């Protein structure tokens, strides 16, 4: 006995997903990756500000070891003071040292690729203070670093590019006006922090 089957009851072959389903999944994947990428980039920016702020604070703490009693910071230049700070192990671990550490002539660089110089500052005929100058700071980080360190009261004066704040206090608004825009991915700002004592 032969059984006939109708064409209606035969299962149709699986043709897979159509272009719309693939396109929707690809679009959702791209959107998720873009959101995650933006969050990572934002966290990276916050990390660099925290690292640079911490590095500058560590430099100030370590540079105070260079004071020679009543004679103050007796160095002929920023090159020799920076080199000596590196020589005694005072360079923060988050910064790059170029040159031979033990030579006394090595240089210090921030995470933006800008040189950092520690130099004696004269007041009343004595080098009782010093400055910390950081170059090539991006605009957003310039505002954040100047504001954070300008509210801590640790510095007697702060200069952003050519704008000096002789009381050492910098608000976000003032920093926003003084910090210049970047050129591509390169920062154009120079921060100078002066510490007396």
TrEMBL record:
Keyword Transmembrane on entry: yes
Pfam families listed in its UniProt record: PilS (PF08805)
UniProt keyword annotation of Transmembrane present: yes
Subcellular compartments: Membrane
Superkingdom of this protein's organism: Bacteria
Any Gene Ontology CC annotation: membrane
Gene3D superfamilies: TcpA-like pilin
Alphabetical keyword list: Membrane, Transmembrane, Transmembrane helix
TM helices/strands, residue ranges: 25-44
InterPro entries in UniProt: Pilin-like, PilS_N
Residue ranges of every copy of the Type 4 secretion system PilS N-terminal domain listed in the record: 49-195
Record-given protein name: Putative conjugative transfer outer membrane protein PilS
Organism: Serratia symbiotica str. Tucson
Name of encoding gene: pilS
